[in-house]
Amino acid sequence: MENREPLKPLLLAFPGPVRDQLVEAVLRGEKVSTTGLLVEYEVEREELPPVGERSALIDSGGREVAVVELTEVRVLPLGSVDLRHALDEGEGYTSVAAWRTAHEAFWHSAEMREGLGDPTFTVDDDTMVVAERFRVVERLD
């Protein structure tokens, strides 16, 4: 993809083993959805991405490894996330409960709380999340 416009980065988790696992799952086609907190967009003063937007998937080394295109963006309460979305995250979850446990651990981590500027941040069923669905349109390796 020579001479293309710079793309907004798609950063999954924080750099390190978890990001590396998620990036590999995207490249294998196993991970086709992801979930973020609406409050993250508010803190960063970012607008929600529109369907059709393309982003560069970034690995832990800061390299662009693929171009992904958003195919769906939903804002919903955490308690409304369904099994299809949890399965499509491609991380091996077999239930919404398992998906939620892992996501709550991430969202309640010191790194996330620091990023949000709230050392006591917690989620509950009413916490608004951004559920995104995407597809890889080009690998950059």
TrEMBL record:
This is ASCH domain-containing protein. Gene3D superfamilies: Sulfate adenylyltransferase. SUPFAM superfamilies: PUA domain-like. SMART domains: ASCH (SM01022). Residues 12-138 form the ASCH domain. InterPro entries: ASCH_domain, DUF984, PUA-like_sf. It comes from Streptomyces salyersiae. It comes from the Bacteria.
